[in-house]
């Protein structure tokens, strides 16, 4: 099974005032089959970490490394990282006018596998995955995320996750803005992906609520661009009770 290693990662973004360092030395190792919750206050750099792993061009890795099974993927483009088995569910999924969801999924699957999926089994797979996520069939022929509600966009991210079958998934606040029913449906989708393809998960969240449905093996407290503390699931309970204040004082 595979290992994703984040080694002393420093990441900057370009702003009007010049380059600003957001990530200040992140170290984390995720094995396939493990679930790591990343919890931290707004603005601490969680999404920056997600984008840096996925290879967003705006987030420059100034030092440190990303290794997949010991291979340096730090310089790879986002498409190559996806082919290597890294998936990102975005905090704010992007609308793609003019591209239907069905076409998008098929194109992404083809790009990642290096060959088009067999048409008969693929259609069934898409239909089943949509049914599991309680998505109406009409979402296949609608443009990607266009006019989708917040919750529908998050489900659509998990639909991609289930169909693209990556080795590692970064889920950036997939729980935000979901009501309890949608949260359960989305969590079941993630858990199916974990069971079916031994997925390694980085679950970024503000809230402990989702951790009732997706059980983390490890919890990391993320503050001011680095991991401030790590522990097991009990750390999440402590955060729920105490909040992040204790860590903010130290930051
Ligand atoms: P989180 O996801 O934990 O809320 P982010 O990674 O979104 O945090 O943001 C961390 C910090 O980096 C914030 O201060 C944010 O304003 C800043 N930042 C992130 N992306 C950009 C960007 N593209 N341009 C300027 N500042 C950014
Ligand atoms: Mg945020
Ligand atoms: Mg964020």
From TrEMBL:
<dbReference type="GO" id="GO:0005524">
    <property type="term" value="F:ATP binding"/>
</dbReference>
<dbReference type="InterPro" id="IPR010230">
    <property type="entry name" value="FeS-cluster_ATPase_SufC"/>
</dbReference>
<dbReference type="GO" id="GO:0016887">
    <property type="term" value="F:ATP hydrolysis activity"/>
</dbReference>
<keyword id="KW-0067">ATP-binding</keyword>
<dbReference type="InterPro" id="IPR003439">
    <property type="entry name" value="ABC_transporter-like_ATP-bd"/>
</dbReference>
<feature type="domain" description="ABC transporter">
    <location>
        <begin position="4"/>
        <end position="249"/>
    </location>
</feature>
<dbReference type="InterPro" id="IPR003593">
    <property type="entry name" value="AAA+_ATPase"/>
</dbReference>
<comment type="similarity">
    <text>Belongs to the ABC transporter superfamily. Ycf16 family.</text>
</comment>
<dbReference type="Pfam" id="PF00005">
    <property type="entry name" value="ABC_tran"/>
</dbReference>
<keyword id="KW-0547">Nucleotide-binding</keyword>
<dbReference type="InterPro" id="IPR027417">
    <property type="entry name" value="P-loop_NTPase"/>
</dbReference>
<protein>
    <submittedName>
        <fullName>SufC protein</fullName>
    </submittedName>
</protein>
């Amino acid at each position: 099974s595979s290992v994703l290693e984040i080694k002393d990662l420093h990441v900057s973004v370009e702003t009007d005032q010049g380059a600003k360092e957001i990530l200040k030395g992140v170290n984390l190792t995720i094995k396939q089959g493990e679930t790591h919750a990343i919890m931290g206050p707004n603005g601490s750099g969680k999404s920056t970490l997600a984008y840096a792993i996925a290879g967003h061009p705006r987030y420059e890795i100034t030092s440190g490394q990303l290794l997949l099974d010991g291979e340096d993927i730090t310089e790879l483009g986002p498409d190559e990282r996806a082919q290597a088995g890294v998936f990102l569910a975005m905090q704010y999924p992007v609308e793609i006018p003019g591209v239907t969801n069905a076409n998008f999924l098929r194109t992404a699957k083809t790009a990642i596998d290096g060959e088009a999926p067999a048409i008969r089994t693929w259609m069934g797979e898409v239909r089943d995955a949509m049914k599991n996520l309680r998505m109406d069939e009409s979402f296949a022929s609608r443009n990607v995320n266009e006019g989708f509600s917040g919750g529908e966009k998050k489900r659509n991210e998990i639909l991609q996750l289930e169909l693209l079958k990556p080795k590692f998934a970064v889920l950036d606040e997939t729980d935000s803005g979901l009501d309890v029913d949608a949260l359960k449906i989305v969590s079941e989708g993630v858990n199916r992906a974990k069971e079916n393809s031994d997925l390694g998960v980085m679950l970024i969240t503000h809230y402990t609520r989702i951790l009732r449905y997706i059980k983390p093996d490890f919890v990391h407290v993320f503050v001011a661009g680095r991991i401030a503390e790590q522990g097991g699931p009990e750390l999440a309970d402590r955060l729920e009770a105490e909040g992040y204040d204790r860590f903010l004082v130290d930051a």
